[in-house]
Every structure is written in structure tokens, then in C-alpha cells.
Amino acid sequence: MPYPIEAVRVIRLLPDQLISQIAAGEVIERPSAVVKELLENAIDAGATQISVRLEAGGVKRIAITDNGCGIPQAQMALALTRHATSKIADLHDLENVTTLGFRGEALASIASVAQLTITSRTRDADHAWQIQGHDPGSVSPASGALGTMVDVQDLYFNTPARRKFLKSEQTEYGHCLDIVKRIALARPDLQFSVTHNGKTTEHWQQSALSERSAEILGETFAQASLPLEASAGEVSLFGLIGLPIAARGRADAQYFYVNGRFVRDKLLTHAVRSAYQDVLHGDRYPAYVLQLQLDPSLVDVNVHPSKIEVRFRDSRALHQFVFHAVSRSLANTAPGADDVVSAGDSKRMSPVAIPWSAQPMRQTSLGVAQPMVRYGEMFSDTLHAAQPVTASGSGYSVSTGTVHASDDDDAHPLGFALAQLHGIYVLAQNRSGLVLVDMHAAHERILYEQFKQALEAHTVPLQPLLIPVSFHADAIEVGTVEEHRETLSLLGFDIAVMSPTTLAVRAIPALLKNADVQSLARDLLRDLREFGGSEVLTERRNELLGTLACHTAVRANRALTIPEMNALLRQMEATERADQCNHGRPTWVQLAITDLDRLFLRGQ
């Protein structure tokens, strides 16, 4: 039923308590939001040890204790006042925020929907002081160590309607724990402990990022991740990125931080995803822990009350920086025997079900770069038609040969070929043991990378259209064409502005001559506008190159000679991203001597 007109026209000042409760609705969505705000305050206070105590998933009680600088007695009442903060003083501070919190709303919002008690002691105080949220005017002496304890009890006791929207105790506890993990990954130099219903569930000592990530994300991620470090001027990116084998079915292991603040930014997520685009299998999601550091004036953190969203001054440049940094790290891997931890070395894996290599591989430059090949050529001049040799009494074909004399040479981490199995797999011996190679997948990656390099080394060939394709365009699309003429030309497109509302495509890349021109052009302009480059074009191009590589690569049941198999191994060692084919499937696995010993119970 609509309000009467007279009632709508009445303007009133809201009571302070109601204002705080409205603000709490934006900031304090559930117990985990309380945990987030209080943990950020503890870190801003310079704490090195932080403990989190929860009861009933945080609904009944949240008590966070830190050893930070504490709150002086004279300022404790002010700390519970809305928009009171020690972190910013003017607009310049707001544009250069270096702390996790800065709004001055968290404590006041929490106090408006829960029973709040703060006990704090500064370094120069003789004892601690305590204040009750419901009575901010009274500050009384208390016992307590250096730092602050914020005790939040009976969340939403005075707003029962909001409490009905909370989930089960275990679900709310899981959300709280996720927040603690998220912050603990950002600050491995701090000590964290979590207690739920009187039982300590997590305890993380001060450590390096690799150790903290192993504790939180598991040993699988720790074993299958690469360190990343890149910089460009005042912008730097560092952390750990998971190898494609560490990809997951859900995007639940993606942690991106901007100046120490966890963010969910579509632009950054898209940049990382694009870097993984031709090494992931199916709908898998990469795992990573990445920290982006840049001048605070280049990022606006005052976008949303939860501070989980940010806005960049130059988003396109950051997208390209992150994309190239991750892409280079993934590309700079080649098979390396020394760095491989085999299946038997992991307690989580069976020595019979052999996974592919789960450790960071050594850098490329393991061999001389191979010459570029034409689309119809094979990976080596020695790859010529050969007939399989049928082993007597067996139901499959196998080619055999002798092992190279220097099979332990560091220059050849994949070792040297022994035989071919079922016309599909190459068996090779290296210093660690046995290497199994899927010859089609490996050759497919080699050709795919060569095709991409050939396109990048030369101007993309144009395919002029006999009849230009005209279509209606909005002002933004027309402006994008005018702004990015040079980029469009480099990408192989000739798009002309025919009128303020009409565009005409006069030429497209020759590789995409069979594409839907209008749809391709619209998608291209959208990508240029959002990311400064065309993801659609890259995906279409890579799909075509992948098809070419797949049809050109050596096929199953093609018998190879020992020299041909060794030529394949050498080119794998010199090829970027050689651990996966362009569909994300593994190209090789390592079975160590210790694995073989366990299979045959040797030494047991």
C-alpha cells in the first residue's frame, strides 16, 4: 500500500542509534564481517600475534585479541563514535590510504547490533582500561596485557529479523574461518590462532608465504606452484601461482591482494584467467596467491563499505601488466628432472596411480631453440614415415633402442628414448627414473607455440572483404574505433567510421576469414574498451591455431624411430608451456626409481 503524499513529504532526522544500525546493515552482514573488521583493526595497530575466539559460529561470541599498540584511555569513548578514526584526517589521506581500515564505522556499527566490550592497554599505561559499547561514557580500569581485546557477544540481539537470515552454526563458522585464512595468507609474517567452542582449530606461526600457503591451501598447491615476481616502475606483483595441474573445479583458491587488501576485482581476475587460457583443461580454475603493490594514489579503495572492491586509475595498463607477468611465469617452464617430486614422495598419492610432475619446472633455455616450421611440417626433419615393429607374442607394437651414453646429462632433463608403447607413448630414461610422454599432446604443444610465435613475429595478414560489412553502432563503439585505430591495425582489422552511428569492417585477419564479421567486430571493440586488448580475438586465433596444431601433430599409432623420439624430447625441453598441450592435458609424467622400488617391494 503506497504511503500518503503528506507522509512522504515529511523529512526527519534519524536517531543516532538507527543511523548506526543502518550502517551496520552495510558493514556487518554476518559474523564473518565482524571478524574481518576487527582483524583489519588489529593489523593496522601493528599487531604481530592475533587470536580469534568464536562461539556458536561467531553468533554467540567473537573475541579477538592482539598485541598491537592499544587504545589510550582518553580515546576509548571516541573510538566507539561513528566516523571517528586515527587513519585519515583530510582528503589527501583519503586518496593515499595505506591502512586496511579508514572509515571509522566498524566499532560503532558493531556496538549498535551486539554487546561490545573493549579492553585495551598501551605501552606506557600502568594497566588496561575497559569500555562497554552500550555505555560509551564510562571507562573503567581492567586487567589486560599490551594490546586490545574486542569482545562481541549476542550478535543481532536487538535486530532479531536480521538474525533469522543467518545460516547454521557450522556454516557461519566456515565463513569466519575463510576470512581469517584470507588475511593470514596476506600476512604470513604474523601469527594467527583460531578457537571455536573452546577448541583450537587453527594455529599458524610466523612463516614465509610458501609455508603459510601449504598450511592453508594444502601440500598439493605448495608442491604444484611457481613463485612469481615482476615489477614495472612503481608497480610490482609477487606471490605464488599454481601450475595447471593444481587447477580446481571451483574458483575457491584464488587470492588477490592490492596493497595488502583482499579484493575481488573482475579486471584482475580476467587478467590471470587470460594468462592460463591455453594451459587449463576444460572448466578448471587456476589457484594463486598474488600481491599487487602500487602507489596508493593510483587505486581508490573507497568504493564499497566492505572495501572488497577497488577502482584503478589506469585499469588497462594494470590488466596488461598482470596478464604478461603471469603468462611469462607460466611460459618459463620446461621439463626438468632435478626439480621433480614423483608420486611416491607424496603421502596423498598412490605410487600406482602416477600423476604428472607436481613441482615447478626449471627455466627454459635448456636447449637450443628450434627453427620455426611451416604448418605442414613435423617437429624434426628426421620424422619420416616408419613402420612399427611387432613384438613376438604381443598384441601391440613397440619400437626399442639403446639409451644414450650421457643419460644423466643435466642438459637433457627428459632423458633419452627407450621405446614407444602402443604407438601412443614414448618411454624415456632420465636421471630420476622413467619418463612417459604422450607424443601427440607433446607435439601439439610444440607446433602450437611455433604457430603463435610465427604470428607474433610478423604482421598479421589481412583478408580484405569484397563487400564491407556495415552495422549500426553506438557512440561508445564509434569512439573505441577512433581511439584504437593503431591497435586495430596491428590486430589485422580495418574498421572505418561511416557515420556517427555506422561502422564498416573492410578487412579482418586472414585466419578468421570464416568468422561472423559483425559479431567478431563487436566483441573486439568491447574487449578493447574494457581491457585494452582483445580477449575474443586471442581466443578465436588460439582456437584456430590449436586446431591446426592438433591436425598437424604426429598421430597415434605412428611408429617413431629412436632418433625421432629423441628429437621430440629435445624440442619439448626448448618449448614454453611444454608440460601441457593447448587443451590443458599433461604431456609427460615422471616415475622415479623410488616409485619403481616400492612397486616391487625392493628394500622392504
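[next item in queue]
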Amino acid sequence: MDVTPILESLNDAQRQAVTAAAEPMLVIAGAGSGKTRVLVHRAAWLIDVEGISPHSLLAVTFTNKAAAEMRGRIEALLGTPVGHLWIGTFHGLAHRLLRRHWREAELPQNFQIIDSDDQVRLIKRLLRGMDVDDSLWVPREIQYFINAQKDEGLRPKHLDDEGDANRRQMIAFYEAYEEVCQRGGLVDFAELLLRAHELWRDNAELLAHYRRRFAHLLVDEFQDTNAIQYAWLRLLAGDKGVPFVVGDDDQSIYRWRGARVEHIHRFQKDFPSASLVKLEQNYRSTAAILNAANAVIANNSSRLGKNLWTEGAEGEPIRVYSAYNERDEADFIVGRLRDWIAQGNLRADAAILYRSNAQSRVLEEGLINARIPYRVYGGLRFFERAEIKDALAYLRLISNRDDDSSFERVVNRPTRGIGARTVEIMRSYARANSCSMWRAAGAIGSDELNSRAANAVLAFLNLIEKMARDVAELELQEKVDHVIYASGLVDLFKKEKGEKGETRVENLLELVSAAKGFERDPAEEMSELDEFLSHAALEAGEGQADAWEDCVQLMTMHSAKGLEFPLVFLSGMEDGLFPHQRSVADPNGLEEERRLCYVGITRAKQSLYITHADQRRLHGMDNFSQPSRFISEIPDEFVEEVRPRVQVSRPMHSTSRRSAKSAPGNELGIRLGQRVRHAKFGEGVILNCEGQGAHARVEVNFETAGTKWLVLSYANLDLM
């Protein structure tokens, strides 16, 4: 058999991983080292060369986009469709499993997935039903507690209150929440994974079946697995499975949402026969950028260790700019972007990364003033928009009348005379009779409601029933189209004046387009509408809004993982901001911050700028900070200092490389942060400096007079 097509594009380390014997393997894949290529070629090798049936492969990744890419590349490599191959996200595969075995999972056949917002609304209703003050018990904190327990594989019965009254109450909320979800057939994202794990754990025959079927497990982004995901994989693999996991301990940056880098170390203990292959050749960045990244991450102690290298060019040095304040920093970045664009480069090939979302405001102002189009990556996503969720709620009710979350969302949207009191009466009846809101609405009569409210409720029930009859024989996109009009949503938003209303209508129409382009999974057995609704819930958050325009990309460093850009700015590189203040004193937290810095550096392909400011106003406070310790961890030979616009003396820091070169301001002893006194305005602090010689001026924040720009040669400032 000719194996050349599968191996010809691989380097030696990649080839070693792809052609390995059928035994557990851990592949440590550095940034830009071709990890997806290895996974795809491993699957193709097993199918085409080893003769493994595609049905015996299960491939897991973390986004639907990555799963679709993997499927497409395997098909291209093999030259044959692999439509029935189980490739998907943890949540997607768990959902498929539960749909097939809903009885064994103790779920109704038409169970509904609820997203994060629906989950919070459900908790709020629960608190009202328990007569609990939600100002004392914050719904999102309860949500976090519940999801965190599920991520650890824990039910309420497994939890001990440890003598803590607050924890005891949280456990009670968790227990009540579970009862509501079970009664309504509702499954949140964390529940998908926990229920799928319990399905295998508690059904030995079913587990044995899937262990026989999925002998080969391919896992992407292994460093991002949480406890329940790892337990799910470990249970499926058993003692005879062949897990092939690919990850990078240096890119584990999601500890705050349950990811455990320790799983990479645990894998070698759980599978002692596992081989280890390191992918260190980088195909993305220049040597200077890789050397900087290697030097920074080498300061972490708990890592398996690797060293990225490239056969490509040495490239430009990393340029470090010492700004006076956040406005000076933004001006510098905008200026370099103007130069970049003027050279004929695409705006979309440039990205500004920051540690905190709050940093974007000043950067956005600078880009707006410079008339440079930009996009904040990770803005409100399509399936998360309110009008889309309204339409999906109507569709869910058509599919499942007992969906309480959907019922409450649209029972009075558009308004139809069903107020909060009427809803509470229905809610109370549903609780008392252990039934859904829909059944409660149909059961209560004039004794509980006045005639006007009763008629309004009846009209709503009739509307849903009529829509269900009208769309029964229609194609999926025709169903969606009919519902957005018959529900009154389109008319509602047409009445909303201005661009916002127009945008909402356009989004509803785009939902019709999404339904038209929806491709069914041939392995699924549910109705097309239910599959589309599940797709919408699982896909929420991956399709970015307004991505078509050529614009500069702004994003947090967490959002940047998996992306790459020819030009990258790492802004706000100051101790206390990055690394974040809450992580500085925590060794584990500091190592994760350093991994985040490593991720940020390795997003750059050609040019990397690092900026920091002496003074930064953030969260309403003025902060005077030292440059990030991560800057000092980059060897001098890979760094080029970018001279500030004005050579003015500023406070020197042990980790800074800036020169104390003489300049007009120095002769007067002027420095940022210097306290001064003015005859008219009183005392203040110097925030900024610009210009030279007789034109040099300073920005001073006076305690009583506010911020003023003053020409140094006329200001007669007294230094304090």
C-alpha cells in the first residue's frame, strides 16, 4: 500500500507520532507545530494503512469549528466521505450519546438543552419559588457553584456542607435546581458531560459496547480537559483502549474554568505504557519570536519541557515601547498600525491583545479617532442575541410544550396582556402539581385568573398550537420563517425605531438563512427541528458577529488562543495587570499567567510589539506600575527598545531597559508621576509630556483644577 500521500508532508517527529503502534500516546505539540495535522494524519493512517474501521474511531476537540475542519481534512486525505465518523466536541458527543440512550440516562426523549443565560433565568425563578432574596443569593454565583460541582462529577448527595451555613444553602439550591431540570427535561452544558459519564459508569453492558466500538480515541487540546471530561475519556478507554492525546502544557490557560494541566502528567501514570513525542518545529513564527517565547516559559517549573525552533528567518527583534500612560500607549499602537496599513497590509492581519477587557476602551477611542476600522473579537454572538433566543424559544415550544424556560421567555413577548402576577400564578400551580408551565396554563381557570388574563393565556396557547399545525409539513427554513412572523417578533422589532430595530429584524432573517444552510448529521435520529435547536445551543458562541470587514482585531489574550496574526501588539504589560495582581503571590497562578504570556507571544508570525505604561487609569483609578516581569525574562539580544517620543526622565525600575538619556525635560528634573505646584492651579501630578525645547509641554492632573496641558517654558512649575 502506498503510504506516501499520508506521510509526505510530515516532519520526522510528526511522522513518528502518526505511524506509532497501537498503544497509548501523549503528543506534546508546541504552538504552531502542526498538532491538527498530526491528528488528521493519524486518523487517516489508522483507516487507510492499519485497516481500522472508521466506526472504531472517536475524535474529540473543543470547538465545532475545529471538529468540522478535522472531518474535512480527513475526508480530503482519504478521498472518501467519513460522515458517520464520531468527531465532535465533548458536549456534542455527549449530547449524541444521550439522545441515543435517553432511557438509560433517565431523560425524556425530547429533552432540551439550556444555555448559560437560560440556566440563570431558571435559577432566578427557583429563588422566587423558594421565597429567597436574590440580592442576598446571587443567581450567577449559584450557577457557578452548580456547574463547578458537575465539572467535578459531584451530585448534591455527594457534597458535605462542612458545617458552613452558606455552603449548606448552596447545596440546597443545587438539589432544588436538579429537581426542576429533571421534571422539565432540561439539560445544561455541564449536565451533558456528567450525565454521559454516569450513563457509562452505571451501565456496564453499554460501556462494554462502546469500549469495543471505540478502540481508538483521538483527543485534541488535551491540556484543557476538566475533571469530568478526563474521567469520561478514562472510563471509555479502560485498560484496552488506545488514547492518542495531543496537547501543550505550556498553553494551559483555563484553570479558572476547570481545566487541569495536571492531566498531562496524570495520563502517563494512568497509561504507563504510553509513548511521548514532542513536536517542537514551529511553522508560524520567526526565530526571534520563538526564542523570546522559549525564554519566558522556561521560568515555569512544572512543565514537561520543550524548545520551539524554526527553519525560517531570524526575523525582526521584539520591540518594547515604554509609554507615559495609556493614551500614549494607544497613540503609539495606532501610529504603527497606520504605517502597517500604508504599506499595503490588511488591517485584519493585525491584532491588539490585552489582559483585561477594560483596557480596550482607550484603544478603541484611538482607533476611532484615526478612522481605523476595528472589531472586538468575542463580541455578542449570533445565537446569544436576544431576538434570536426569542425565536428559538418559540421553536422549542412547538417541539416541546413542557419547556418551562422557553414558555416563560415568550409567554408575554411580544406583550399580550400576561403580566408577572399571572405568570407567578401559573408557576405556583406548576410547582404544586409537579407539572410544566404549559400544563398549568391549560389547567387553571377563571377561579385563579380574571377573565382578561385567562383569555390572554388561552390566546397564547392557541397561537402555539396553531403555529405547530401550520409548520408541521414545512421545510426547516420555512418553519423558522413562519414562526418569526406568526409569533409577532418581526413586527415587534420593526416598531423599534432606529438601526437597532432594523438589525434585530435582519438577525431574525439571518436565522432563516441559518436554517436553510443547516446540514443534518446522518448519524442522528431526532427530528430535523430538534437537531437544529440542539445545534443552536451547542454552536452558540462560535460564530463571530460582523467578521466580514477588513478591520484590526482587538481581543483578550485568552480569546487569542488558537489564532495567529502577522502583526501583534501585547499591550498593558505591567506587573499587577499582567501578570494580574491576584496571581502575583500565587505560584500556580503566576505560572498560568506566564503560560498566557507565552500564548500571546506565539500568536505573532512576523512582528511583535510589547507596550507598557508608567501610569494607567483603569477601573477609575490611577496606577503607577513597573513593567511586567515577563519583559525582563526575554534576553536582551532579542529585544529592541523603541524610544519614546520625548526623552523625559521617568522613574527607573529594576526590570526596565529604558535609557536615562538627557533631554529638555531632564534639565528641569521633570518626570512622570512628579508632584508639582502651580501658582494658579495648586498642586498636581505630571501625567504626560510631549514636544521638545521651547514647545515642550506637560499634562498635569491638579487636585482642584483638574487636568491641564501647560507649556513648560511658561508654566513656572515648582517641583515637590
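[queue empty]
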